[in-house]
Design brief:
The complex is a heterotrimer of chains A (324), B (748) and C (255). With 324 residues, chain A is an alpha/beta fold. Chain A has nine helices and 15 strands. In chain A, β6 (129-136) and β7 form a beta hairpin. The two termini of chain A are 42 Å apart. Chain B has helices at 14-42, 54-64, 68-80, 88-122, 129-160, 177-211, 217-226, 238-251, 262-271, 276-303, 308-318, 343-351, 357-361, 363-366, 373-390, 411-415, 422-426, 433-446, 452-464, 502-506, 508-523, 540-545, 548-564, 575-583, 602-611, 641-650, 686-695, 708-721, 732-739; strands spanning 487-488, 496-498, 528-530, 569-572, 599-601, 624-627, 653-654, 702-705, 728-731. In chain B, strands 1-3-2-4-5 form a five-stranded parallel sheet. Chain B has a four-stranded parallel sheet with strand order 7-6-8-9, sandwiched between helices. In chain B, α4 runs antiparallel to α5 (129-160) and α27 crosses α28 (708-721). By secondary structure, chain C is α/β, with parallel strands linked by helices. In chain C, β8 and β9 (165-172) form a beta hairpin. Classes of the chains: A alpha/beta (324), B mainly alpha (748), C alpha/beta (255). Chains in contact: A-B, A-C, B-C. The interface between A and C is large, with 87 and 74 residues. β10 of chain A pairs antiparallel with β9 (165-172) of chain C.
């Protein structure tokens, strides 16, 4: 417990720690290195203990276990976190820009009279203050912000820090809620799962998208294998869906889905503006096309001027080799 | 000198003649009821914008007929069914029925005049002697023509059964056609049979007269009377009757004109073996049948689709003087009820004969969209019939029966229209289907019932002045890679102001052709400039989608910019922009910066520069190409030759697609459809159908377009069809660019 | 049900964004504003609730960032009342805490059963308006909502969780909801109706005292390094494949 600690608000998602939590732990670890404090993960829930071990990249894991925390409740979360942060007195609190973080962080800051910044992408210690780089205006603008005073509440964008799942010797402390919790004005009723059907390409981290360069329906199998190797799914540009080779649920672009996967591998897609609209927000775009002037290369980060049919097989092998 | 006249009421007893005349008033009353039924339908409508009351409109339009062009159009369309000319079978059939009926009608009218006017009042018949012979010949001849026409019609409708005549939604009843055709046929047949029987009786009488050749004239007259030839027609003087009997007796010839009615004469020979009594009974029966059929025909006119023989001339007469590329606005919020359409539109709907020609040429219908222009018109007719029966429009609050949206005409149908005008152009009775669709779309827009893609486009036009949702500041980005800068017409005076349009400016596929055209202009030393960021979407398609308010907004903004710019002419590569600038930015009653300044399409400009010798191809292109007529250039503005002249001058071999010029098949982008989402279940889009049409042409490697939207649509379609290696979609500007020797070659 | 919708203007990202000479903020003289997307959804949700169960919709906005067109559009769509709050700088939207204080003062007097506000805005740096407004109003709050159904004295709100999972939440009224998306996309309102609304709509103005400054200092604002054209990977099929695999590992996609 020190004023140099970095506190991470951990989240679970579908019965596992959320990806962002590991990223926050990674960020917190870096920051703690600079402040000389510890990383403290706080996990709220009714069965938090079972996830605690996964968070051992932290130095301490604080599990607040209470039936009232079984489901997310903004009031309860704010109340518990306000108490925990006051008690811990950390230098900074890392909260994800998530459905929970959005509801909790600003209120928490106001209640604690603490500074809060939204859209944090990087953070460093600069003298007495923290220097936080924030993404604004849909990523078109960056702002370097000096955050003075503790605890600084940093609402962090997904993908900002390298995730840390390092298994350390974290100490797990499980407590009941430090504040009495009653059902408030906002109560959880039930979770509604998405209707089972075709995969939702908007939720995929890896998409292997095929266009006219695939040439024949029979070649789709090859792309499918690549997608599976990468742990992703197949997507397509309009002509492929028009041909009926893949269902409309796989169509990317203006008249299809807007996707933002971590990896968008565009195979044989020329990249008409309508297509670009649906995928340009992807984290990493790799395009393979025989035409070096194809507009897809304007949005891609990496490009390959090659017939996709020649590349897919060696690529599957190379990836398998990396996976060991 | 022989003196004989048309026999009056031959073999028709007095009571029959009296009965026939007595039937006229009820028939007239029924006809008037039918007429009122029709008029009541039109009365549901709004006044025609710009014209006001019905009477004022009629007067203006009648004055319009004083112009030769309008008169010619009226005569050719009305009397010669010129609008059917693209379909020779239909033309032949329709001309035969029309002229057959017309001549028989005139014949009947002349007979009535002869009997009930000149003969009655002046004891004189003009149908006599040679005049009567010619009359008989003409009526027999056109009777045959009529039978031929009806036979063709029956063949087409019940044997050939083209798609367009099947399963029609109709306002009245699909059985409407059959009795009508049957009546026409039977009128001709009973006419001939009655004539034949009369002539057969003549043969009998003649035989008797010849047998008593040695008797005196008086004895012969007595013989004729004994054979039962009486004075039948009322009011024919005893004197004339006796003179006629004397003539027969003297000449031993009962009907001297019989041989001039070849069909009747032949039938007379056929019936001659019958006994005189049977002939007379049969004659009276057929005479009655013929008369009743004639009445039935008269009543068919207001109550069946035969009505079009009254309404279509009225329609044609009332066609507005404005260019076809200018939409009218009766109700800005659009047509929600039948009564929100104008009375002239209702009159059009009322003229529809559900011939299905509109459906046959409709690109949306052909590719499986939920649209048939005929069904739209007929569904409106059904509403009109019910609404009119429920109470005339005017101040009365319209009830449920007046509704035209929802389950009457679904939004899908209205959004499927590409406003290509193929239907309007082919409609024999001059119905303006696109205007109807757009009036109804205006209501959908007013209610905010629109497709997401369309909503995005409209909001983009509203906010950014372009449908792409890009910054206005990027509008001239395509010029950046040109070696020579393009003038800013906001700042410098230019001869040609190039109104570039959204697609030519922003669409990545169109930018290269836009640059090619710019380089050609530059090479030719044309003094031109653009409006850069100040140009807004011209609004042609915004208006056709039904967003009238937004059209007015962009028009206002553009006019403000145009007012400040100094230029002499406007040029554009985009036919849609061309249409609205040319037809809608001017002539709307208010002053416009476009007034008095020509607006030309780049194909027209190239054509003109060729004629002036300013544009000289450096080399001939030896390609075999086909050319796609853009709807808004061709059918809307009649520009077919300019692009063809240019192609010819470039040396290419132009191979026409089967559907060319006014029969051109829309790419599917018009009327805002390019902004809307694809409709599920459409197997092949119009552009793909069109590409396949071009692929049928032998050895054609280039598909030449003269519209940036066409470029986008067809380049896409060529890919979908998988014919990129066989057919290259090129813009006319690119070919000109290549021919004047700036670039080596456009590679396939 | 009295529904109050809070709308704010944000810089239009379609138009180029310039940095002010100070280097610490956008050059607001050059900014083109438009309604914040989620606020537009909040308005749509309010209109849908009104259409389903009756009530009134009051739109509250700061007189800042060319807000009038947005308000006329709201009126044309069916908002019953428009309240405008004058601010000191009509070009520069206040930071979330200040905006929350301004809005709270104005909303207090409106007897709202339900306050809908966009869940987030892309220019929110110092916290977020929606939860801060709820706190100022001392009303319960839940955000990131896709769809609201009215109930008796409460509403059912659907809160989005990752993986297209929704949490069905019951919210007792009065309350503030942060709307991410309405049950239906915002409606299209034809220009003619906006024009008519421009003529007929009157704004109510509520004077509110300006609030405290944020506790965060922007030192520098800048554009991220410009995106280049794709880095082309050269070599044989095998070499390129190996390079791609390497990149995937480097980017943390292949683990």
């Amino acid at each position: 417990m020190s004023a140099q600690d970095i506190l991470v608000v951990a989240e679970t998602n579908q019965d596992a720690p959320a990806d962002i939590t590991f990223e926050l732990l990674g960020g917190a670890r870096e920051l703690a290195g600079a402040t000389g404090g510890q990383v403290v993960a706080v996990l709220l829930g009714s069965d938090g203990v079972k996830h605690a071990a996964a968070l051992s990249a932290a130095d301490r894991i604080l599990v607040i276990d209470d039936p009232q925390l079984a489901a997310f409740s903004p009031d309860a979360y704010v109340a518990v976190l306000e108490h925990v942060i006051s008690a811990e007195g950390p230098r900074a609190v890392l909260v994800g820009c998530t459905t929970i973080g959005y509801d909790v962080a600003p209120t928490l800051a106001a209640k604690l009279n603490a500074p809060v910044v939204n859209g944090c992408k990087a953070v460093a210690v600069e003298g007495d203050a923290l220097k936080v780089t924030c993404g604004l205006c849909g990523g078109k603008i960056l702002a370097d912000v000096a955050v003075a005073g503790s605890p600084a509440i940093l609402m962090t964008l997904p993908g900002s820090f390298r995730p840390s799942e390092a298994a350390g010797q974290a100490q797990v402390e499980t407590k009941a809620s430090p504040v009495p919790l009653q059902p408030g004005a906002v109560t959880f009723e039930q979770m509604i799962m998405p209707e089972a059907g075709d995969v939702d390409i908007m939720q995929q981290d890896v998409l292997v998208a095929i266009g006219r360069g695939i040439q024949q329906e029979g070649n789709i199998e090859m792309a499918q294998e690549l997608a599976e190797t990468l742990g992703g799914e197949l997507a397509a540009s309009r002509p492929i869906v028009d041909q009926g080779w893949l269902p409309t649920t796989r169509q990317v672009g203006k008249s299809g889905m807007i996707v933002k996967p971590k990896l968008y591998l565009a195979l044989g897609i020329s990249g008409a503006p309508e297509h670009q609209e649906g995928m340009s927000g992807s984290d990493v775009i790799i395009a393979v096309n025989t035409d070096p002037s194809a507009p897809i290369f304007d949005v891609a980060h990496y490009g390959v001027e090659m017939d996709l049919l020649d590349l897919v097989e060696p690529l599957v092998e190379a990836i398998n080799a990396k996976k060991g | 000198m022989e003196s004989f006249a048309r026999p009056l009421c031959w073999n028709v007893p007095h009571w029959a003649e009296v009965t026939l005349y007595a039937m006229i008033p009820p028939v007239v009353i029924l006809f008037l009821i039918g007429l009122w039924w029709r008029i009541r339908k039109w009365r549901l409508g709004m006044p025609e914008p710009g014209d006001g009351k019905i009477l004022a409109t009629v007067v203006t339009r009648l004055k319009g007929l004083l112009s030769f062009a309008r008169l010619k159009e009226f005569v050719t369309t009305t009397f010669f069914q010129w609008r059917l000319s693209r379909d020779s079978f239909a033309t032949l059939m329709h001309l035969a029925i029309f002229w057959g009926m017309a001549v028989l009608f005139v014949g009947t009218a002349l007979a009535t005049l002869d009997q009930d006017f000149t003969s009655l009042l002046f004891d004189f018949q003009f149908l006599q002697g040679n005049v009567y012979r010619l009359y008989e010949l003409a009526l027999d001849g056109f009777g045959v023509v009529l039978i031929l026409g009806v036979t063709l019609a029956v063949y087409r409708r019940y044997a050939a059964r083209p798609e367009r005549l099947k399963a029609a939604v109709t306002g009245i009843s699909k059985w409407d056609t059959f009795p009508f055709l049957a009546i026409l046929l039977l009128i001709a047949v009973t006419g001939f049979v009655a004539e034949g029987l009369r002539i057969a009786e003549g043969f009998h009488l003649q035989q008797q007269l010849q047998a008593s050749a040695d008797r005196s004239v008086e004895e012969k007259v007595q013989l004729i009377e004994e054979l039962g030839v009486e004075r039948k027609a009322l009011f024919v003087g005893e004197e004339r009757h006796e003179a006629e009997l004397r003539r027969m007796a003297e000449q031993t010839n009962v009907f001297p004109a019989a041989a001039w009615a070849p069909v009747g004469y032949g039938l007379g020979k056929v019936f001659a073996p019958l006994s005189l009594g049977s002939i007379r009974t049969l004659h009276q029966l057929t005479w009655w049948l013929h008369a009743l059929l004639a009445f039935a025909f008269i009543l068919c006119v207001p109550f069946t689709k035969a009505w079009h023989l009254v309404s279509s001339p009225i329609n044609i007469l009332l066609r507005p003087v404005r260019p076809v590329g200018r939409l009218s606005v009766a109700v800005e919020a659009g047509a929600a009820q039948i009564g929100d359409l104008t009375w002239r539109q209702l009159l059009q709907i009322d003229s529809c004969t559900w011939c299905g020609k509109c459906q046959e040429v409709c690109p949306s219908h052909a590719t499986g969209f939920a649209l048939s222009p005929r069904s739209v018109v007929q569904k409106l007719d059904r509403v009109m019939i019910r609404a009119a029966a429920n109470g005339a429009g005017g101040s009365e609050e319209p009830d449920e029966t007046h509704r035209i949206h929802g389950d009457v005409i679904a939004a899908d149908e209205l959004w499927a229209c590409v406003t290509c005008r193929a239907c309007e152009d082919v409609c024999p009775v001059c119905i303006e289907q696109p205007q109807l669709v757009i009036d109804m779309r205006r209501h959908l827009i007013d209610q905010g019932e629109i497709d997401e893609g369309l909503q995005d486009a409209l909001m983009n036009v509203q906010r950014y002045g372009n449908s792409f949702g890009q910054s206005g500041r990027k509008r001239a980005q395509w010029t950046k890679s040109l070696e020579t800068a393009v003038k800013d017409a906001n700042k410098e005076e230019v001869e040609y102001l190039w109104f570039v349009g959204d697609y030519a400016s922003y669409d990545q596929r169109a930018q290269e052709p836009t640059r090619a055209t710019a380089r050609v202009f530059q090479q030719l030393g044309l003094d031109f400039g653009i409006l850069d960021a100040k140009e807004q979407n011209a609004g042609n398609d915004v208006r056709r989608v039904g967003e009238e308010g937004l059209f007015e907004l962009v028009q206002e903004k553009n006019c403000k910019v145009l007012e400040k710019a100094r230029f002499q002419k406007i040029v554009t590569t985009d036919p849609h922009t061309y249409n609205t600038l040319k037809n809608e930015y001017t002539g709307n009653g208010s002053e416009s910066p476009m007034d008095g300044r020509p607006i030309v399409h780049y194909t027209e400009l190239f054509d003109q520069l060729l004629r002036e010798g300013r544009l000289r191809p450096a080399r001939m292109l030896d390609y075999r190409v086909t050319y796609h007529d853009p709807c808004y250039l061709g059918r809307y503005n009649g520009i077919y030759d300019a692009p063809r002249n240019v192609l010819k001058a470039l040396g290419v071999k132009l191979v026409e697609m089967p559907r060319n010029r006014q029969n051109s098949f829309c790419c599917g982008a018009g009327g805002g459809r390019i902004w809307m989402k694809d409709v599920p279940g459409i197997e092949e889009r119009p552009a793909e159908v069109r590409i396949r049409e071009a692929l049928e042409l032998p050895d054609v490697g280039y598909f030449v377009v003269a519209c940036p939207k066409d470029l986008a649509m067809f380049q896409d379609a060529v890919k979908t069809v998988g014919a990129e290696d066989r057919l290259r979609v090129v813009d006319l500007g690119e070919l000109v660019f290549e021919a004047i020797g700036i670039r080596e070659e456009v590679k396939v | 049900m009295n529904i109050v919708v809070v709308v704010r203007q944000v810089p239009d990202l379609i138009e180029p964004l310039e940095i002010a000479e100070s280097g610490t903020s956008l050059d607001f003289d050059e900014v083109s504003f438009l309604v914040n997307e989620t606020d537009d959804h909040a308005l749509e949700q309010a209109l849908l609730l009104k259409e389903a169960g009756g009530g009134t919709v009051t739109v509250v906005a700061l007189d800042c960032g060319e807000v009038d067109d947005t308000l006329y559009t709201a009126a044309a769509k069916g908002a019953d009342k428009i309240v405008k709050i004058p601010v000191e700088d009509e070009l520069r939207p206040p930071a979330p805490p200040a905006a929350a204080a301004l809005f709270a003062e104005a909303v207090k007097g409106l007897q709202a059963d339900l306050v809908l506000v966009g869940s987030s805005a892309h220019d929110e740096l110092e916290g977020m308006l929606a939860p801060l407004l709820a706190l100022k109003l001392q009303l319960p709050y839940v955000g990131v909502i896709r769809g609201v159904r009215a109930g008796d004295g409460s509403v059912t709100a659907f809160k989005e969780f990752p993986g297209a999972v929704m949490a069905k939440m019951n919210v007792k009224l009065p309350a503030v909801l942060g709307i991410l998306a309405a049950d239906q996309p915002p409606r299209y309102v034809p220009v003619s109706r906006i024009k008519a609304a421009t003529k007929s709509t009157e704004f109510e103005e509520v004077e509110v005292a300006a609030a405290a400054a944020p506790g965060v200092t922007v030192q520098r604002m800048y554009h991220p390094a410009a995106g280049e054209r794709a880095e082309m990977l050269e070599g044989s099929e095998e070499e390129v494949a190996a390079k791609i695999a390497e990149i995937l590992v480097e980017k943390g996609i292949l683990k």
